[in-house]
């Protein structure tokens, strides 16, 4: 099992979702430690990168302790992600620069806007 992601220390309007993997943490947690699933974004210590790679516009929350064994994690395409809390749908897209970083790291980027509404 992958190392677990940090559990959000606050709920409500202080949560942000990673635009690539939908991991939920507070702004301060992303700033302090980055995203466990997207280390190539190098968010830790970079305010602009945290703002560009995350959003406060998301809906729904799922907590997943065993992503590899969860049908919900497979449905949301987080079955290879670290155990943690995730948004079900994320509004917004990565900037072109961040999409290029994904490409250069051989990581596929699929926008997660209205993800829960996708056809089965």
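Q: What amino acid sequence fits the structure above?
A:
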């Amino acid at each position: 099992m992958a190392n677990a992601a940090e559990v959000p220390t606050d709920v409500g309007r202080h949560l942000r979702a990673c635009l690539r993997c939908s991991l939920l943490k507070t702004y301060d947690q992303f700033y302090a430690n980055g995203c466990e699933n997207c280390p190539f974004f190098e968010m830790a210590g970079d305010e602009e990168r945290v703002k560009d790679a995350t959003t406060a516009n998301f809906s729904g929350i799922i907590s997943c302790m065993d992503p590899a064994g969860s049908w919900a994690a497979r449905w949301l395409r987080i079955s290879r992600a670290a155990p943690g809390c995730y948004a079900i749908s994320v509004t917004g897209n990565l900037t072109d620069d961040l999409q290029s970083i994904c490409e250069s790291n051989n990581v596929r980027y699929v926008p997660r806007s209205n993800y829960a509404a996708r056809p089965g």
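Q: And what stands out in the fold?
A: Helices lie at 27-33, 47-53, 71-75, 96-104.
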